[in-house]
Amino acid sequence: MKIQSFIGSTPLVELTTFDVPVGVRIFAKVEFMNPGGSIKDRIVSYILDDAERRGVLKPGATIVENTSGNTGASIAALAATRGYRAILTMPDKVSKEKQDALRAMGAEVIICPTSAPPGSEKHYVSCARRIHAETPGSFTLNQYDNPLNGEAHFHSTGPEIWDALGRSVTAFVASGSTGGTISGTSRYLKMKNPSVTSVLLDPVGSIYHRYFHEGVVDPSQIAPYFVEGAGEDHLAKCMDFSVVDDVIQFSDADAFATCRHLATREGLMCGGTSGANVWGAVQVARTLAEPATIVTVLPDSGNKYMSKIYNPDWLTQNGFGTGENRELEPTR
Ligand SMILES: Cc1ncc(COP(=O)(O)O)c(C=O)c1O
Fold first, then answer.
1. pLDDT tens digit string along 44-93?
2. pTM of the entire structure?
3. Beta-carbon neighbour count of residue 85 at 10 Å?
4. 297 and 172 within one domain
5. How far is the CA of 56 from the centre of ligand 1 (A)?
């Protein structure tokens, strides 16, 4: 069987070392155990299957996509097994390990400046659009605006959580970039039980938090942050706020401190958004008095960030201490 057959059905582990009220349980789906190394395998396989069925992705064609790395890794892996060419554009803040992994699987990688304003020629999204337009017969997943992104989670992540935990699920908590994970999973869980609460984690420097609470996209709020794969500088069509009940902000320090805790206390060496997601799950847990079950996802592995989140020099240079003694931030 090819790698495609092993996407999804990821382990659901209970996190037991965080200081949360008695009776409140936190579970996390270990998405970095997907064969392409992240949660993005789910949407890439779903969208490519659909495109092949509809005949819009022809044998030997080129797949072009803008990515912060994980969608690119899934595309590179599935393109390798299915005989497609892959051209992937990324912002230069993406870790070197992630860039190299795509090249290792035969993809062409184009690095664009993170500082390029959205819509400008050099922005990684515009760059992918241009290459797609100029490459005859090419296919783009258009992951930010493609409704199949959320649909993939509606048909896989949501049912897997429900089948494992059923009506005990109180809340689903996740950070979002395209919004596919939070929107599709929340839509499924709310369909099964409308009282499930959905909470989006948004990094300081992203637009979603203010948009959710005040209905405003404020470009002056766009600021750099280190966590890769969460937050946005534009509104993605896949982000469906009608199934989101609250948006809370996290900082890089919150996410990285929780990564450290997950690695050293739970044996789960995760990427920055996993740290953010678990930090958020802990914050939600601390607001609850009744027995409850909070579910989140660990989108990718810490192996992709050895030069950053798990590198004491990098942590020190960027003002996070060495990571050695940092405790999980208290509730805000
Ligand atoms: C590491 C990581 N975590 C979380 C996400 C967010 O997922 P979504 O795009 O479904 O909102 C991404 C998306 O790129 C990611 O790369």
1. 999 999 999 999 999 999 999 999 789 999 999 999 999 999 999 999 98
2. 0.94
3. 15
4. yes
5. 25
